[in-house]
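Subject: design request, 769 residues
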């Protein structure tokens, strides 16, 4: 390799001239002549037409030194040849080439950390793949890139060596031999300069740590520059939110042990003095709405300076400007510091800039989901004034679809149009289909399995499709459900349900009596507000009990030997204001559903109400409450249908008790098995304290929770009494695993009665596809 020093321009020019002269030596040796023919020698796999197409001269042209030099350069530029030279035989120009060997096979030896197919695709993208010419420079580049990838996973001792093995027909096998070694783990995190807070308090702000018993899962003891930068920002935010306005991180040193298996991190900081906010003053143009903006201030006067509330205030101001179409508004918080008294006054300087309207809205990242599925959730329209509230609402509505792991909006200026902007919605898709498995252990059924398959975004259309199958020996269900969320252009949804359920008694055999419930139904969802929906529907249901042998049918079921039909009308309402449907930490969910049947053989009214609330105690801890109340009553002098009773017990209601067994005493006579009838009234209450799993840091995909459940179903002749509630308590584990969501609980009854059936262990598993 020749290095040129630009401090000596004459010398540099000389080197360049020498290089060009060496390249064109074969061409300079040939005197000008008229080309009668052109021949190519040395080709093995490459077609002659490829060479002829690249030559800058043709038969009949006059050969010159410049044309010869250009011909050699053009052929080298193809990247197909190791050597190119020009010769003459009379007035025939002979192009002699030596082909680069082609790659016959690319393989990896010692690869464990990465997927082979992913690496092969990466090499293919840079030109290293089977059938392509071998280029040593590209192979060296691939070596370095692989090393960088290993370093990103804390495998600093990884070695990557590429070798070539010649094979027939001028081909080579390219082999990357990898020695991965072990990951470099953090042995020490030392913070120097802290006076106001102990080391452990500061280290608690970090996601990186020196390891624990859960490090095999979190990998929090593996050094990553990206993670360290995020932790340094968390440390800075910790101080700035506690009054340390002039806090700074002076330096960060990362020292690697000679064995490349351990590293120490030292962070030098200067805390500075603690400042108290003495006041907030507005300056600039506030659109003559000063009082409205003052109402958005979240900065507490008389309290220590808090950078978080300052950022929240400036963000709220910017968003409020956006409500009036000022897409480029700037709000800056300028501190006026009184160091003598350790006080600071904040001046909020606003410049709304210019009003703009949205020219075009673009969508990116939706490889599977159709554009219209996303666009129909937009509340900001093209060719309309920029409205920050509508843009945020559009983002939230797209996010609530549940089809994407992230939804981001970017505002783009339009060149030459200062009053226009474009919006870019970038989404990251996630699997929306799932296969679910539910199981519970008991001394009766041993293990009861539930299987379901659902697709929330079938074929990218936004439609919901689900099939549920229960494979229990005593309960067999088949449920098919589909929902079109935009059955009309106004956003009215339509759901169709088909179900067939067969239930047999416990302790029986497969020939015992069975309860058969079949039906179809449809309901429509009418959006009333952005978070409220009203549901209207109608169902047709048919119920029949068929006698069997071996187990006597309870007398309560004998009226259902003849088919019973019902045509209930359904009315419901839902309001969902949670921050996440999968891992909620704040917000409220409310549901109300009612059935009214005044046609067919069954006349009844039934209603349920559910209330859930999530309260964030800190960044890590969440308190969750759930209440579920149900009521049913017969109409026109008829009894409430037994098979419309509510059932309590098991996963989803009161954990620690067998499913559907908490209610009036079971019916049993003669040789009949115990039949749990449930009741037309129910109460269920749940409370959970949710925390990250010990040793998992702030990872929300793995969470531990303690819970207390209470509930019971009540018969028609029973009064609802809190004294009759069964109560349980226990612990559980929630894990958003690579296979899908998993929820496990172990509960112990606290308040129980003789005859209650206990089922302490319960879990649910889901698998994405």
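Subject: RE: design request

Done. Sequence follows.
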């Amino acid at each position: 390799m020749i290095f040129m020093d630009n401090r000596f321009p004459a010398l540099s020019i000389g080197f360049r001239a020498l290089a060009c002269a060496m390249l064109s030596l074969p061409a300079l040796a040939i005197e000008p002549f008229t080309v009668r023919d052109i021949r190519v020698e040395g080709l093995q796999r490459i077609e002659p037409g490829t060479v002829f197409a690249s030559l800058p001269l043709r038969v009949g042209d006059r050969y010159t030194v410049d044309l010869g030099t250009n011909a050699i350069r053009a052929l080298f530029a193809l990247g197909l040849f190791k050597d190119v030279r020009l010769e003459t035989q009379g007035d025939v120009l002979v192009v002699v080439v030596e082909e680069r060997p082609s790659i016959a096979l690319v393989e990896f030896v010692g690869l464990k950390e990465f997927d082979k197919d992913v690496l092969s695709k990466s090499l293919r993208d840079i030109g290293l793949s089977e059938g392509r010419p071998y280029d040593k420079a590209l192979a060296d580049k691939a070596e370095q890139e692989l090393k960088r990838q290993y370093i990103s996973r804390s495998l600093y001792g990884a070695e990557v060596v590429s070798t070539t093995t010649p094979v027939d027909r001028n081909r080579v096998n390219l082999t990357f031999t990898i020695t991965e070694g072990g990951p470099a783990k953090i042995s020490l995190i030392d913070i120097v300069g802290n006076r106001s807070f102990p080391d452990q308090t500061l280290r608690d702000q970090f996601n990186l740590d020196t390891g624990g018993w859960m490090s095999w899962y979190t990998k929090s003891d593996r050094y990553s520059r990206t993670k360290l930068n995020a932790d340094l920002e968390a440390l800075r935010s910790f101080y700035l939110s506690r009054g340390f306005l002039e806090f700074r991180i002076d330096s960060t040193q990362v020292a690697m042990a000679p064995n490349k298996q351990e590293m120490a991190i030292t962070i030098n900081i200067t805390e500075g003095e603690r400042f108290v906010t003495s006041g907030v003053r507005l300056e600039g143009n506030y659109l003559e709405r000063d009082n409205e903006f003052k109402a958005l201030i979240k900065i507490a006067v008389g309290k220590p300076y808090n950078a978080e509330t300052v950022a929240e205030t400036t963000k709220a101001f910017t968003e409020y400007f956006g409500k009036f179409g000022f897409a480029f508004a700037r709000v800056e918080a300028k501190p006026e510091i009184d160091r003598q008294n350790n006080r600071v006054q904040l001046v909020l300087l606003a410049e709304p800039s210019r009003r703009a309207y949205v020219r075009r809205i673009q969508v990116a990242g939706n490889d599977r989901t159709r554009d219209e599925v996303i666009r129909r959730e937009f509340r900001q329209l093209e060719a309309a004034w920029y409205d920050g509230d509508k843009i945020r609402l559009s983002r939230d509505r797209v996010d609530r679809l549940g089809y994407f792991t992230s939804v981001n909006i970017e505002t783009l200026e339009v060149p030459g149009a200062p009053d226009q902007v474009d919006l870019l919605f970038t989404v990251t898709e996630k699997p929306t289909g799932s296969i679910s498995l539910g199981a519970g252990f008991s001394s009766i059924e041993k293990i009861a399995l539930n299987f379901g398959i659902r697709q929330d975004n079938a074929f990218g259309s936004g439609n919901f499709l689900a099939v549920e199958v229960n494979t229990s020996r005593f309960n067999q269900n088949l449920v098919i459900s589909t929902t079109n969320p935009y059955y009309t252009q106004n956003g009215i949804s339509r759901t169709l349900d088909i179900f067939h359920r067969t239930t047999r008694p416990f302790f029986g055999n497969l020939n015992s009596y069975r309860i058969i419930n079949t039906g179809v139904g449809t309901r429509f969802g009418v959006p009333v507000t952005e978070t409220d929906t009203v549901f209207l529907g109608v169902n047709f249901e048919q119920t029949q009990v068929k006698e069997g042998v071996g187990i006597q049918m309870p007398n309560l079921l004998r009226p259902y030997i003849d088919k019973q039909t019902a045509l209930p009308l359904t009315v419901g309402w839902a309001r969902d204001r949670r921050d996440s449907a999968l891992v909620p930490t704040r917000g409220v969910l409310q549901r109300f559903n009612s059935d009214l049947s005044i046609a067919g053989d069954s006349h009844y009214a039934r209603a349920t109400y559910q209330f859930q609330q999530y309260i964030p105690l800190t960044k890590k801890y969440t308190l969750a409450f759930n209440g579920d109340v149900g009521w049913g009553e017969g109409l026109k002098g008829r009894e409430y249908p037994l098979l419309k009773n509510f059932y309590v017990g098991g996963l989803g209601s009161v954990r620690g008790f067998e499913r559907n067994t908490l209610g009036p005493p079971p019916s049993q006579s003669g040789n009949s098995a115990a039949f749990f009838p449930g009741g037309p009234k129910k109460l269920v209450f749940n409370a959970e304290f949710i925390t990250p799993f010990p040793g998992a840091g702030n990872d929300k995909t793995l969470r531990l929770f303690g819970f207390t459940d209470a509930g019971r179903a009540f018969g028609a002749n029973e009064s609802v009494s809190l004294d009759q509630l069964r109560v349980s308590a226990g612990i559980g584990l929630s894990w958003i695993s690579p296979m899908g969501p998993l929820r496990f609980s172990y509960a112990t009854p606290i308040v129980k009665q003789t005859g209650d059936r206990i089922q302490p262990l319960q879990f649910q598993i889901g698998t994405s596809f």
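Residues 1-28, 441-445 have pLDDT under 50 and may be disordered.
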